[in-house]
Specification:
171 residues, alpha+beta, Immunoglobulin-like, five-stranded antiparallel β-sheet
Length: 171
């Protein structure tokens, strides 16, 4: 008789704990489904240029006024044209290109007035894009598509790579 009561008590305890866990998971799932709880904001910033692996996104920063992207040339040829477009589902879209607004991290400006600008193999270029016309608030998560168009020096074809980006805006 005592063994039956202990067995019944342990089964009832398992059922009660199981129901509590089920209700808790359902509530958390509902909060995530209705975008009340956004777990993406806890994930680290990522940038994947995609394509053949000739370019690598190494650093990025987003704030109310600027989006800065550090792109390294991993290929064997210098790149003379580099265009970056970023867009997401909420309607944010901005574009920047190497030929007019980028600089080598070493401090040398890549400027259209200084002859033909190019990104040498192994070098990194900082592309700075003005985003002051967009609705970028501090803490906003930009998760979207990164389209990169580039052309090798003395090349005839403009290459295109489609990747993804996730970056959280800072103050």
């Amino acid at each position: 008789m005592i063994n039956n009561k202990k067995a019944q008590l342990s089964i009832e305890t398992l059922i009660i704990y199981g129901l509590v866990i089920l209700v808790t998971l359902s509530v958390v799932g509902g909060l995530i489904y209705f975008n009340v709880l956004d777990l993406r904001s806890y994930l680290p910033d990522t940038c994947n240029i995609g394509g053949t692996g000739e370019l690598k996104c190494e650093e990025m920063k987003l704030n109310k006024r600027h989006f800065e992207l550090g792109v390294r040339n991993l290929g064997q040829k210098p790149i003379e044209y580099l265009n970056v477009s970023v867009s997401d589902e909420s309607g944010i879209h901005f574009t920047g290109e190497l030929s007019a607004i980028a600089e080598n991290v070493g401090g040398d400006s890549i400027d259209g007035n200084a002859g033909s600008p190019s990104l040498a193999p192994g070098d990194i270029a900082k592309i700075s894009i003005d985003v002051s016309g967009q609705e970028v608030k501090s803490g906003k998560l930009l998760q979207g598509t990164l389209i990169t168009k580039y052309k090798y020096k003395d090349g005839a074809i403009t290459q295109e790579a489609v990747g993804d980006i996730r970056v959280k805006a800072s103050g």
